[in-house]
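Re: the multi-chain job from yesterday

Posting the exact lines I submitted so nobody has to dig through the queue logs.
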Amino acid sequence: MLKQIMNTFLFGALVMSSGFSLAQWTPDVEAWNSPTPQQPEAVVFRNATVWTADDGGILENADVVIRDGKIDGIGSDLRTPSDAIEIDASDMHITPGIIDAHSHAAILGGVNESSRISTADVRIRDVIDPESINIYRQLAGGVTAINLLHGSANAIGGQMSVIKLRWGREPDQLVIDSAPPGIKFALGENPKQSNWSNDNPRYPRTRQGVNQIILEKFQKAADYQRSVEGMPSGRAARNVVPPRPNHELAAIAEILNGERGIHSHAYRSDEMLALMNLAEEFDVTIATFQHVLEGYKIAPRMAAHGVGGSTFIDWWAFKYEARDAIGFNPALMHQAGVLTGLHSDNPELARRMNLEAAKAVRYGQVDEHEALKMITLNPAAQLGIDDRTGSLAEGKDADVVVWNGHPLSVYSRVEQTWVDGRRYFDRAADQRMREQLAAERAELLALVLAEGEESDDDDSGDEQSESPAEEETTPGFRSFAAHLTSGAQQHTHLHGFAAHLIGYRSSELSHDDFCLFHFE
Amino acid sequence: MMISMLKKATPTTLVLAILLTSATASWADVLVLTGATVHPVSSDAIENATVVVEDGKISAIGSDLQWSAEAEVIDLSGLHLYPGFVHPATQLGLSEISSVAGTVDTSEMGSINAAIRAEVAINHDSMLLPTTIAGGVLIAHVMPNGGLIQGTSAVVNLDGWSWEDMVIRSPVGMHLEFPTAAVDDDQNDDLQTIEKVLDLARHYQRATQAAAEEGTTAPPRNSQLEALVPLINGDQTLFLRANRYDVMEKALDWADEQGFDNVVLMANADVQYIAERLAEDDTPVILRNVYAMPTRRWEPYDMAYVAAAKLAEAGVRFAIADSGTGMDLANARNLPFHAGSAAAHGLEKSDALKTVTLWPAEILGVGDQLGSIEVGKRASLFAATGDALEPMTRIERVWIDGAEYDLSRDSGRSLYPRYQERNAEVQAR
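And the result, structure tokens for all chains:
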């Protein structure tokens, strides 16, 4: 423990010697009030255990050199620029940033556009919340990129967005433009609306119907595309009414052209088989099955199709279709040659994905390095961003996590998280933030108390104000916090993890209500 | 820590013959677990040690024991032997699949459910139980959850032929959800309802007593009021639930005014803010859920992770639970990882292990039977490949009251080899 603390201080001290402004970077709890961390020209991490999540394997006592936001070298005796910021990472472990292929953590509400059975026209890119506190918290858990998906209310959902966790930048600046476009699909209980009453029942009500509606949409999209492509060009076009633009079918047509990947929420093996068969009829390869709880039952078939499996390691039994989920699912898919990743689908779980990977070692004895790939390289490959991130290799983005111990150990903690060579999370900086917030709180409290004394006789009728007698008997922090919380919106409609949370924006607590229906 | 510990009573050399109790017919009924690194919890780990089990109880622990060839000897070399984890607060057994209403018996309607006993609806064949056991969680405190006065809870073995067979201790205590809105409103309707019912129970008890002793007319039987008599007499623990530090303080003040001396606070991470008071009053705590978002948006990211360390620092007696409901029901097997993560954020590792073994056992009144590997305690144990709080560790064997548990009852452990074989076959074609 002491050693960990010492190391934390050491980081601060060493960095301060090389770059004052970088060392003093302090985030704020509000993203808009946090300065964007600098991107130093060169950084070198010394003497770490480096988990490359690549063919490089695990390297002991290795250095990692970052230059201009990219990884410049990994190994020992590397040439490093004289002005590089040196970080002593002895006794530390370095891994690539964690990639979460299933997230709703930074969406400005409306995770589910639950109206139509197909909402292929709606786009997450329009509703990215770059200031969500979830982003900062997930950086603190070592996550550097996430796939923002719609919920699972529709057989064909909306267009997803793969983002880097560049907290506080403009929404478009978070988007990884090189990521291939993707779209959310959903099969099973959610699109067929099994678990809630609907005043206006919607087709379909069965798994067969879900498959049928997707087939019909594919056919319509193919027809639409033919009519668009059949439009004559030049002078001949003047005599023909062009087809009315249809953004939904246009997006589905992109799927049929292989330009937009399907990422389909699915639990049971039967529904996944049906979708693979349907996709193959149209010469489409599904990018991933999301959740894919029974993937282990059809893993060879998945491998033959070429679909990736993005799964929970151990969530099960929350719905009937999650009954046969087992912790061994990632191991079995991996053994069959399926590109296997682990995802969160939950902003709290996303903060400790390393422990989800550890469970892949527990259930089925997946090799530790392979298990780490399930939260780094493999999800990056599933999202088509593995040329940029997901492993530590020369030329890739410097998305790097520094751990104070074995990255899959329950006793380890993230010390620093770098995105594009910018240190977006640092325990030492976080500590400075706490001190600043405490000072600001004390200052505000003094002002509130001073005002309270001045307005003793002024019964303003403000419902929030407490009587002076109560103020005096309540210690400062409590009084102030009570003041802040008394008027806070209570998200009583939210289930489970969000039930008692205070001060959050509702969008920060929004998740796929349909996926995890029926929390107590 | 003010937790009492049994004295370590394990001389290194014992001649086992003298240990055979009269109830044990012969050596053939003796189970000898050898070679493991034993983690007694109540004391330091012992390498290459032997644990002897008779009649479902631990009868000897040591590194130089002798036994007859007739005894059943199991070699656990290379493994680590731990006492079963004790889940301090859950509704396991009361719900199977939370989205299928017919399988859910977690929350009765109405405000006053004092006579509800959680254990009478435990499905002993729930598919969730083998999976929980395969995670080393062998014992659980199963609690009711409906209304304001919610009923009584029980400590149960997670394996048995019926709920009656599973019960270890019942009732453990009366559960009460303190109304959040009562924090600054003494006229709060819910709080007044609770107080009125408690007063009725006091009158009911006096009238019943008078009828017995003085022959006055007995009041009509009322099971809800009857169920509250042990609580108001001070014979039963009150499990007080609150999830904001100011509500917790108010709830504790209120319990004090009501004359309840025997209180266990069940609370979320906010409990860290009243740690000093809890230590001073020696009020035990069940900390529900380490894996939680900070209660307030502006709080540090690790606010919930450090709660356990703050309680330990202040000297509070506590146990670590998960949320005990919802998604956590099917994943009660992850209980040890909550404790492990608390250790990543300041809690001593040895204390972390205690928060899910000995300390919950003591807080729940079964510390003399469970929670550590000590002579005389129930032989509910598991053997693991390493540190039991590490998610990478595998649990290899389990014994409940001395009987080995068939881990293939866990759906994962039976489906894994089945599909491993099937998939290999398919791919060999």
